[in-house]
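Revision sheet: structure tokens.
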Amino acid sequence: MKKLSILFLSLVVISFHAQIVSVTVFSKEENKPIPYVKVGVEKEKTGVISDENGRFSIDLSKINATRSILIEVPGYEKYSQSVQDFKNLDGQKIFLKEKVKNIDEVSIKPKKLVDKNWGVNTKTKSVMYNVNPDINNENFLGETALEFNTSKKSKIKNINLNISSYTSDQPVLMRYSIYSEKNGFPDKNILDEEITVELTKDMIKDGTFTLDVNDRNIWVQGKFFVGIQFLKRFQGRITISAALFRTGYIREFYGDWQKMTIAAPAINIDVKVDKNGKNSKDDVKNNNDKTSILAPDLSQYNMESENSVYGKNDAVGNTLKLNDAELYYEIYGEGEPLVLLHGNGGSIKEFYKQIPELSKEFKVIAVDTRAQGKSKDFTKGNLNYKIFADDLKNLMDHLNISKTNILGWSDGGNTGLEFALKYPQHLNKLIIIGANAFPEGVDEDLLKNFKSKVHMMQLANQPENETEKRLLTLMLNEPHINKKSLQQIQNPTLVLAGENDVIKTEHTEMIAKEIPKAKLKIYPKATHYLPFEIAEDVNKDVISFLKN
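Predicted:
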């Protein structure tokens, strides 16, 4: 009996201290509930989203009574009330007053408008925003945004969101917002009415959900932001493609916006813009952003490589079965052998600009590294570049090739270095593009992104992500080639990199310095993606190096 009394007393105390306020938000003019209203404490991360009938409950027991409750809905005047006074509204209705709309006439003749697309177009599955309510409870209802900039008045036609995966049995509720800019951050929502979408899988076409906003008459000029927010929890997960080193912006409810310099969501917009405006990507470039330097938009190259025959050419493709793997490869041309090794998470198709030219001079053997492309890996342990080098040696034995040249890009270059150390007698010349001898040679921000992503994958524990997690872990832990080892490589070596590569310039220079017979070339203004960006120059230099 005594225990029951203590339990009852505890419940009374908890009930007494709980300050849960339940309210319904209505439109004053129409006397109708306003659905999915964002209600929160001003300048703080605490908040809730009302349901479809405008109802919500918020716990204010730990909130300072002098702070303000804030409700902002496009098309309505802002509502603000002190926490102390708001507590007295429990069980009541709040009426929001509609704004008086000032409709500005836009007198731009149709013939002066041209179509543009701005923003992040990548559809990569290697860098993503992971929206998963089950593992991200605290900030699931947060908001993310991308900055744009236009010198001329422009009309937004479509807002595109690149979604790499969608898993949900029910529609996923999303809100779109357009913000003005203040001090480099999103400021006020410039929309006259809410834009909410119930997203279903069949609305995503070729990895993109396109929202038609042409009839909403959204005109922008100067800096502005496009934001997205998930409004309701759901069973499942959504992953949004993201671009490395682009600056994204995030906030939780009415908390301060924060910059995310490591990556930005793949939001892009179709616009109508005055043709007399800047006709270049400078329209949307943020001069303080690291993005355009380290990670350019690769959507054009990805699309072209997907449309090429390489990596899926049944006429020349073959598979070598090993004890613990299957290696897919394609052979083009005749002459001295040249093996092409792609980067992490890539495939043969990434050399779609190299194979046509190099196969005119050499017998090109393009390989999908194990666990990537069409190659398979049956092991469960950690991957490393020594394993990849052994795979290449097995393939050479299978093809009766005693000696070959190697061109390795990124991770492929790392494999090339390991091959040169273990099988020097089977290597003629080596070309490495954007390779590193140890993880510290990679840009710190990129490594931080890899670490964060691996951590999220570990929390999610999704079997379908296991291979990607292993590949990311590979870049965090490998390779381990010291200067003394580099000095042992006696094969003629061409070391290539971009001036703005994700591999540190001093690291690339170190590799070239330590390899006795190495030549170094740093391409001005180029990034890690030389075979895409300046394919003609790369192909010419590769052929010249191998022929001479």
